[in-house]
Design a protein that fits this description.
CATH superfamily of the largest domain: Hotdog Thioesterase
CATH topology of the largest domain: Thiol Ester Dehydrase, Chain A
Order of helices and strands: EHHEEEEHEEHEEEE
Number of domains: 2
CATH class of the largest domain: Alpha Beta
Shape: globular
CATH architecture of the largest domain: Roll
Strand content: 25-35%
């Protein structure tokens, strides 16, 4: 439903596999892993497990260059899981670039999660203990110098010996909202105002990136007015951060594709013509 790069060519020093325990809130009542449980596993596996202290990131950081998250693709599996058993997360990273007059350089992360079939309460499922896919995700980050003067923030080249990786398309918020399938609503349907507070923020001094997928799924559920739906595929593009005290207008447009319900969700701030964040999700 939502493709993502495999990053199979990552060298050994760009790969790591970990085991991790899940929280109760990570697993839905039917046993499937929720999508917003995937990024923390990528963080543990790729960021803390691979990139912190890696020669590449250390070298770029010395020049003030860091990678900023701008896009996620999340896909959930159907394996029933239990909080009593660890899952396995296999992560890797690579570089890519967006060609054109405004060339951009990307850090790409990919994590695949599998776990033993289980159930937290009640009798075990069929084939209990057998490993199965729990989810996979792709994280796209753009290299920038966020603390430099405006004229130096854009990264126009990487060190010659680093390489630039494959070409990628630059997905924007409008691309995410232009989703395939039959649209059942206008683009700005099912609006709701959301006031953001300190509970939505993190130590990066802005609203945390995982707040938006949760709010998007809640808005899509409200639009469909059905309670037995669980998001299984989601793409999100972050264009501009939000902060405690901001009020965003969140709209949802219901979609149907090959019988599958979905929605596009946009987060608008007053006075801005483009959404700050755009989400496409499928149940």
């Amino acid at each position: 439903m939502l493709p993502m790069p495999e990053l199979d060519g990552a060298p050994e020093d760009a790969r790591r596999t970990i085991e991790a325990r899940l929280r109760y809130e990570d697993i839905a009542q039917d046993g499937r892993l929720k999508l917003d449980a995937l990024p923390p596993l990528m963080g543990a596996c790729c960021w803390r497990g691979l990139l912190v202290g890696h020669p590449l990131t250390e070298r770029l950081a010395a020049d003030g260059v860091i990678a900023i998250l701008r896009r996620f693709v999340l896909v959930g599996g159907d394996t029933p899981l239990s909080v009593h058993h660890a899952v396995r997360a296999a992560g890797r990273f690579g570089l890519a670039h967006v060609p054109g007059e405004r060339r951009r350089f990307l850090l790409e992360l990919r994590t695949d999660v599998e776990g033993p079939r289980g159930r937290t309460h009640g009798p075990p499922p069929e084939r209990a203990g057998e490993l199965g896919p729990a989810g996979r995700l792709y994280g796209e980050h753009v290299f920038t110098r966020p603390f430099a003067p405006p004229e130096r923030r854009r990264v126009e080249a990487l060190p010659a010996d680093v390489g630039v990786g494959p070409e990628r398309a630059w997905r924007q918020v409008e691309d995410v909202l232009d989703a395939p399938g039959e649209a059942l609503d206008d683009a700005l349907a099912h609006p709701a105002a959301v006031r953001l507070g300190l509970a939505h923020t993190d130590s990066n001094q802005h609203v945390n990136s995982l707040v938006y997928p949760r709010l998007a799924e809640e808005r899509a559920l409200a639009a469909w007015a059905e309670g037995d739906l669980l998001a299984r595929a989601l793409e999100i593009v972050y264009r501009k951060p939000s902060f405690a005290g901001d009020v965003l207008r969140v709209t949802a447009r219901r979609l149907r594709r090959e019988g599958r319900p979905g929605a596009t969700v946009a987060f608008h701030a007053e006075g801005e013509t483009r959404p700050r964040v755009a989400v496409q999700l499928w149940f």
